[in-house]
Write a structure and sequence with these properties.
Elements lengths: L2 E5 L9 E2 L2 E6 L6 E6 L5 E2 L2 E3 L6 H13 L1 E12 L4 E5 L4 E3 L2 E11 L7 E7 L11 H11 L7 E2 L1
Parallel strand pairs: 2-9, 3-10, 7-12
Antiparallel strand pairs: 1-8, 3-6, 4-5, 4-11, 7-10, 8-9
Length: about 160
């Protein structure tokens, strides 16, 4: 299913749903960040997705990262909570979802890179190379928060 992301756009459609979701900043031993090139909006992003009934949020992180990238992870802590009502995603089925995402730090513990139906490319990216990719501003905010070593508390916004 394709989607259009609206970020602080006065012409954005009104949200008609909220779905809890997760993203993960996964860094390898070289400090590179695991990113996917998404099939639904053609942007680079952190791996993640919707929280399912019957699972813990940590399990959601582990499941989504492995589904989208082939990498198994261990969840370490929270980067932040991202609930900006001015960031909505309009899907081709008529759903317009307000952002509600919890971003986590996670570390790789196994697996190997592979794509999925949600990711047309998966790669480890050095922080210095992030500006070479097209990343949604909200996703870039999460990455920047995760890289900010002066932060002592999770972002809430």
């Amino acid at each position: 299913m394709s989607r259009i992301d609206y970020f602080r756009d006065p012409n954005a459609p009104k949200a008609n749903s909220v779905v809890p979701s997760v993203t993960a900043v996964v860094r390898d031993e070289e400090g590179r960040i695991l990113l996917i090139h998404k099939t639904d909006n053609d942007l680079w992003a952190l791996p993640g997705g919707g929280h399912d009934i019957g699972e813990s949020v940590a399990h959601t992180v582990v499941r989504e990262v492995e589904e989208e990238t082939g990498i198994s992870v261990a969840v370490e802590d929270i980067v932040g909570l991202y609930t900006d009502p001015e960031h909505v995603m309009a899907y081709d089925d008529g759903e317009v979802r307000q952002q509600f995402s919890i971003c986590f730090h996670a570390r790789p513990i196994g697996g190997s890179l592979r794509t999925s139906s949600e990711s047309k490319e998966v790669r480890w990216v050095a922080p210095a190379d992030l500006d070479k990719l097209t990343i949604h501003p909200s996703m870039r905010l999460r990455i920047d928060h995760s890289l900010d070593e002066s932060r002592t508390k999770p972002y809430i916004g």
